[in-house]
Design the sequence.
């Protein structure tokens, strides 16, 4: 009895439960990497081969190192994701600051519209965007995909950034205005450095959302400018799927996402929880 209560008191039970959930969530990632290191016969082995022994890197050599198409689509994804991130920041920062600090009529309605915009699936917006972009010549361009992805990242970014701007002490802005700063100067010199964590959070999520977007990339683009998400779909054929090649390419595509999240997890977690508690 004493041992059981001591076990619970030290928090080992919660740690064990947390570990189980982590294993469940990370197992698909492990299975993706393990499948990429198997031969075609081992992929469908019964019982399944949990650990690929010996590991086979043929898929990485053929589909990653010696595949110029992957390099092209990888560069396309970098351009689209960075462009979406920059455009999102340029629009979200003044938008969120205006909703947080300026006494605008209809600000509550604007927030409601942003929330509704988060609920719309991308397939609903893809059709109108296709018609609009075809008339102004933005189909099959990087700029078209950047604008399309921004329609999804912008509402989320404004909602995340607004609590950060609300947390900025008004005395700092008042003191800056006394020293002769304009409204734009206050935003650039005082407010933006103060909300650096929120900006990093928004930038990371805008990049990740654009990196993994598929519907706009498929409907608004052709093979000349396609990102990696559409290129992965090419491994799925009418008569079968090249699972080891698909998993090897997916592993390489997922690496930037893992690196960004691991390196910026402190800012991302802090940014998502900001404003959750009202002071």
Sequence:
């Amino acid at each position: 009895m004493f041992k059981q209560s001591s076990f619970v008191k030290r928090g080992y039970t919660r740690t064990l439960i947390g570990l189980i959930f982590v294993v469940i969530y990370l197992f698909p990632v492990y299975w993706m990497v393990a499948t990429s290191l198997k031969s075609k016969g081992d992929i469908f082995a019964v019982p399944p081969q949990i650990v690929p022994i010996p590991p086979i890197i043929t898929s990485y050599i053929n589909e990653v190192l010696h595949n110029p198409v992957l390099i092209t689509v990888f560069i396309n994804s970098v351009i689209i994701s960075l462009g979406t991130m920059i455009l999102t920041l340029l629009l979200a920062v003044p938008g969120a600051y205006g909703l947080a600090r300026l006494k605008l009529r209809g600000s509550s309605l604007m927030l409601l519209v942003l929330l509704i915009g988060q609920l719309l699936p991308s397939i609903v917006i893809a059709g109108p965007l296709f018609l609009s972009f075809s008339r102004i010549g933005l189909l099959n361009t990087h700029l078209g995909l950047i604008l399309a992805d921004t329609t999804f990242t912008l509402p989320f970014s404004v909602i995340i950034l607004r609590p950060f701007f609300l947390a900025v002490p008004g005395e700092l802005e008042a003191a800056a205005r006394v020293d002769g700063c304009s409204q734009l100067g206050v935003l650039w010199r005082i407010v933006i450095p103060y909300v650096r964590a929120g900006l990093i959070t928004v930038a990371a999520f805008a990049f990740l959302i654009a990196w993994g977007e598929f519907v706009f990339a498929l409907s608004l683009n052709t093979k000349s400018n396609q990102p990696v998400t559409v290129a992965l779909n090419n491994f799925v054929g009418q008569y079968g799927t090249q699972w080891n090649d698909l998993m090897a390419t997916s592993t390489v595509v997922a690496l930037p996402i893992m690196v960004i999240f691991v390196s910026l997890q402190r800012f991302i977690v802090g940014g998502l929880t900001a404003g959750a508690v009202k002071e």
About this structure: Confidence is low (pLDDT under 50) at residues 275-279. Residues 62-273 form a domain with the MetI-like fold fold (CATH 1.10.3720.10). The two ends are 42 Å apart (CA to CA). The longest helix spans residues 68-101.
